[in-house]
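Q: what sequence does this backbone want?
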């Protein structure tokens, strides 16, 4: 039999549940900088998983996945609001579609009633799907590698060491695994064996990661580099921003710095086409006694491209 589409009050409840998926996705952003509630990375995906597994169908789960993705990407890219204005909302929902397959897969793996066998499969399938979606959407023509779940552990040294084995994707897998285990353990239809098994797998994975991090011998320190960062903040006029950076660089003289780094699009000119600009930057490097790493828009055969250039006291 084909289930009838909900009507009236049932449709209102259905869309209410879908709307609730938005804050469940936004919640996960709190684990990332600047809030950096790193502990939330281990359970932050669980509310979204609970909402996805309670979907009425695979299609409904995909819609809930997209709504949760909209909440996540809308908050991750909050700094774009001042640039795109009213278009930030449709942009968030467009990026949220990247989470639609994740919602469907989670529903297929976790939908009630759970059995020990399906719970065990979900512990492998859901984290794998999470990492796959993160990897695909990290393509620079899509969302880019912003807000990858594993990045929430950037200052948690015992867990962060896992990245030496599998990069940020290994960290994302571990965090998605613990959230999946928490979802299984909290599910009222989950058998006792499935709950205990899920928590045991999560504990073993987390314990193994911490043990590896504690036992891993760090690479030897062979030297130190003193870096000065020059960040002008919100100065709209390109010439004013450029002049401010030059002055701050000159003021760095005598600080014993080895390298001075300017920010993204710090030089609003093609250095190669403006010898005078290049000479000003080189003069600032001489005054500071250190080379400058800057970013300039370089005109090539395929149009403008952003290039990082090292400007020493004697030139690029």
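A:
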């Amino acid at each position: 039999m084909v289930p009838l589409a909900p009507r009236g009050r049932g449709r209102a409840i259905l869309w209410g549940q879908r709307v609730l998926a938005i804050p469940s996705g936004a919640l996960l952003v709190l684990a990332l900088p600047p809030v950096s509630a790193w502990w939330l990375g281990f359970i932050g995906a669980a509310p979204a998983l609970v909402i996805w597994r309670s979907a009425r169908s695979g299609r409904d789960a995909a819609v809930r996945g997209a709504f949760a993705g909209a909440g996540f990407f809308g908050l991750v890219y909050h700094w774009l609001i001042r640039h795109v204005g009213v278009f930030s909302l449709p942009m968030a929902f467009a990026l949220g579609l990247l989470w639609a397959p994740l919602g469907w897969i989670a529903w297929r793996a976790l939908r009630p009633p759970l059995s020990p066998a399906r719970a065990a499969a979900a512990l492998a399938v859901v984290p794998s799907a999470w990492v796959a979606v993160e990897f695909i959407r990290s393509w620079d023509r899509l969302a880019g590698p912003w807000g990858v779940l594993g990045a929430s552990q950037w200052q948690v040294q015992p867990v962060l060491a896992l990245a030496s084995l599998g990069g940020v994707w290994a960290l994302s897998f571990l965090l998605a695994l613990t959230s999946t285990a928490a979802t299984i353990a909290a599910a009222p239809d989950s058998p006792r064996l499935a709950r205990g098994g899920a928590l045991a797998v999560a504990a073993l994975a987390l314990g193994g990661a911490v043990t590896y991090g504690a036992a891993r011998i760090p690479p030897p320190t062979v030297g130190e580099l003193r870096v000065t960062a020059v960040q002008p903040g919100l100065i709209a006029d390109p010439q004013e921003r450029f002049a401010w950076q030059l002055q701050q660089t000159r003021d760095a003289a005598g600080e014993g710095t080895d390298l001075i780094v300017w920010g993204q699009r710090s030089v609003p000119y093609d250095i190669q086409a403006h010898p005078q600009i290049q000479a000003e930057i080189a003069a600032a490097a001489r005054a500071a006694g250190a080379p400058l790493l800057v970013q300039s828009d370089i005109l090539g055969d395929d149009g403008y491209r952003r290039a990082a250039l090292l400007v020493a006291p004697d030139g690029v």
